[in-house]
Amino acid sequence: MSILELPKVELHLHLEGAAPPTFIRGLAQEKGVPLEGVFDDDGHYQYKDFWDFLKVYEAATACLQTPQDFARLTTAVLEECAANGVVYAETFLAPDFCGGGDVAAWKEYLHAIQEAADAAERDLGVTLRGIVTAVRHFGADQSRKTALCAAETAGDWVVGFGMGGDEKYGEPKDYAYAFDMAREAKLQLTSHAGEWNGPDEVRASIRDLGIKRVGHGVRAIEDADLIREIKDKGVALEVCPGSNVALGVYSSWDKHPIDLLRKSGVTVSVSTDDPPFFHTTMKNEYDMLNKTFGWDESIFRELNKSAISSAFCSEETRSEIE
Ligand code: ES4
Ligand code: ZN
């Protein structure tokens, strides 16, 4: 079997960030939303660096206005997942972009997203689960509202709580209250760390937020003690190599530490993050890992096994995707 055709598990995928440019352009036209500076002449998303990316991301997201818009987005994203052989995905959902952090509005958005996901599971064979996500640079107060949205909808479908956004804004401990709320609601926890800040950010996130998975976490490779701690605690890294290269965390694929992390015994999985923004797909990630590091079918099968074991879903769902 070609490695590109293998069944894949993806644990780090932002729903809005997975919106195809054509989808966002269509929506903008329908709604009369001006989208200045979002696309280049070829119709791709354009941004100068990560911080500009966050602005462009928010501008594009402004076209997504109703629960129905998010339902259509979910369908489009899951079609792309299916085309890439993804059988199970966890997606970050930000209530800040779905009803502005209000619990009642969030429930309506979530309901629409879940209905679209259920239909895609039937029609396309892709299972989706949600991780409610705070946006770090929106601040600690807002993160508590997000955690309330998460706690109010925790269950078989909303399985986790996380945080993305600007890692240079504030400190992990500022968000401990939100993560405590989510933990009490029996949600599993992840946070973006160690993409822009170094190993200390990963260490502080594990210590102060009690996370069991780290979004990116790749810069942990710079600290041998931290690598040991990550292994001892069974923390898994959601690694997105194509994203890291597109944003310049690493200058090229062969400089990316994923192979070193895997060889050092850290649990890693592979995801696309915000695929059209980074000109990638799960097939492209597999192709590049094969070409750069010589990963073969047995390594990819192992990778997916450990991705399934670090998934946040119920044991029942886990056994269905195995
Ligand atoms: C992110 Cl809040 C958010 N959304 C999409 N991609 C991201 N990367 C880091 N934070
Ligand atoms: Zn991310």
What low-confidence regions span 5 or more consecutive residues with pLDDT below 50?
Answer: none
Strand content: 15-25%
Question: Which strand order do you get reading across the main beta sheet?
Answer: 1-2-3-4-5-6-7-8
Query: Which architecture of the largest domain would the CATH scheme give at its second level?
Result: Alpha-Beta Barrel
Tell me the total number of β-strands.
8
Radius of gyration: 18 Å
Q: Name the helicity range.
A: 40-55%
Which structural class is indicated by helix and strand composition?
Answer: alpha/beta
CA(first)-CA(last) distance: 18 Å
Question: What is the mean pLDDT?
Answer: 98
Give the CATH H-level superfamily of the largest domain: Metal-dependent hydrolases
Order of helices and strands: EHHHEHEHEHEHEHEHHEHHH
Q: List the bound ligands.
A: 6-chloro-9H-purine, zinc ion
CATH topology-level name of the largest domain: TIM Barrel
Counted up, domains total 2
- Looking at how many chains there are and whether they match, the oligomeric state comes to single chain
Global shape: globular
CATH class of the largest domain: Alpha Beta
Biggest pleated-sheet summary: 8 strands, parallel
Number of helices: 13
